[in-house]
Specification:
single chain, Rossmann fold, binds iron/sulfur cluster
Amino acid sequence: MSDTKAKTAEILDERRASIFTADGCGGGGIACDTESVSGAVSQRACVFCGARVVLNPITDAFHIIHGPIGCSSYTWDIRGSLSSDQELYRHSFSTDMQETDIIFGGEKKLARAIDEAVEAHHPKVIFVYATCIVGVIGDDVMAVCKAAEERHGIRVVPVVAPGFAGHKAIGYRLAGDAIMRLIGSTPADRSEAHGVNILGDFNLAGETWIVKDYLHRIGVEVVTGITGDSTYDSLMQAPTARLNLVQCAGSMTALAKRMEKELGIPYIKISFYGIEDTVASIMRIAHALGDPAVIARAEELCASETAKLDGLMERYRKALTGRKAAIYVGGGFKAISLIRQFREFGMDTVMVGTQTGREEDYEVIRSLVSPGCVVLDDANPAELEKFMLEKGADILVGGVKERPLAYKLGVAFCDHNHERKHPLAGFIGVKNFAQEINSSIHSPVWKYL
Ligand code: SF4
């Protein structure tokens, strides 16, 4: 799309309730957490993708996609979660449904695929994802999985996630349900509860390891990640944890609520993006656990790590103050952290949107941004281009689908999504983020566009 076309792009009438311009003083809500408008070309992925990205980081799990081969394009490559041991999760397996399977049914083919997987790989758990066409023809995936569990004596967990059954956030909920089906609803003895589970950190570029290191340094044990760098055995220990830490609230709040209700594990929301949120999260964890020695170590760690960043922050503030940022990410919690993080560099956020944010996220966003900032839920490419141009954004933070939108408008870009290979969490993440933002904004290439 040329600049002129982007500037004159019309907003669909049905989309207007999902877009507002912050005026800095409260106001009505935003239409969000609903189905995408037909024909609006949403940036969201499908239900199956939502479920797959949450479960994929379980490193010794076997994932079978029951559907056409095209659905299998969602693989490890779309979420570069790292493993400290097993590598099975990096493979993608599909029943590769063909025309005859669709006409006559694919249940037998799925049962054969499970048998083959067990024989060749001996996994402890298999997740079976039913995608769109299976939802149409009605294969009884639950029954096939149950029979396979009895046949092989391992866990075979169905994830009935046809892409058309809603939007990505529905897939997150289905993944949470699959985890509950796996770990069960029997509470552990709460008097012996110990340590924490980290929910919604997927160990992209090793970020779970960074968080674990901070927790280790303040004396807090991590029972398991859900699901970053987790295994079947570690997940089965999840009910013994004392506290759940919810990093990606969009994908994990529903699971955290179920674990609280059914297993008695309370949860707190945290975010390790930016100095302000990293410090606040470490202190929130320490206070939630209530051990004075942990609180003292947390204070010490935050003071020493932030002091190390003083010089760097001063340098980048000089280079970045006054620049304008646009944000389009998956969940509301990340968007909120990014607004704060840009503020730490003296940058103003002029456009911010999410794929799956909730009303309470948008209320926080409204309270953080300057008047005039455009806030939008479940945006499409035309809207993102229009508002980036109108607001004069210097950089867009987004994922793989947003990258070309920025580049063709001559706007700098920072990947803050699944595919990136460098950590952006914790104090080390602050350094990486600053370097990337700075080098992208000041790249000489923009002069030639
Ligand atoms: S929308 Fe349907 S067909 Fe496409 S990837 Fe998702 S589940 Fe597969």
